[in-house]
UniProtKB/TrEMBL annotation:
Coiled coil: none annotated. GO terms for biological process: tRNA wobble adenosine to inosine editing. It comes from the Bacteria. One of its GO terms (molecular function) is tRNA-specific adenosine-34 deaminase activity. It comes from Paenibacillus amylolyticus. InterPro entries: APOBEC/CMP_deaminase_Zn-bd (IPR016192), CMP_dCMP_dom (IPR002125), Cytidine_deaminase-like (IPR016193). PANTHER family: CYTOSINE DEAMINASE FAMILY MEMBER (PTHR11079), TRNA-SPECIFIC ADENOSINE DEAMINASE (PTHR11079:SF202). This is CMP/dCMP deaminase zinc-binding protein. Residues 2-120 form the CMP/dCMP-type deaminase domain. Keywords: Metal-binding, Zinc.
Amino acid sequence: MDKHYENLLLAFEEAEKARDEGTFPIGAIIVDADGSVVSRGRNRVFSSCDSTAHAEVDAIRKAGNMILHLESKKFIPKNELTLYTTCEPCPMCTSTIVLSLIKKVVWAANDKDIGAFKKFKELNSELPIYNDLFKDIEFVAAPYRDLELRQRKMLAEWNNSRGYTDTHWNDELANETVQ
């Protein structure tokens, strides 16, 4: 099993905790250059009544000592951190990732509605808002079909439980079997 897959499975552990706590089932972890997990995060929007408590932001908050050097009041420029998340980051999370100087992002499922990472990176060439920050960030989008379907199923079930039965999370599940 490769490292991306293993790390995404750890992010899914957090997503399951979020689901069990009654909020969006999205999880994230951050690993350092050696592959050691430096933080874990999960969506806590409804469990903590905080609209900014997304999984990626939670993990970034917990990795603060790997991102910020408090004594010098500077960002650590070559932190070589990779963020793994079960879902493509939204606009808020994408901006938080970029401003935290994280070097690589890997996600399990693309999000055609609110996912922003790919869109922001593409737009960056036309609207160079974060040009110096964004150009060095690598991403790997939905590299494993089974994990993408797993995330889609979790989000479809979450949305269905709230009365939202016609969402894009159900689209690809109609003809697929998820284990």
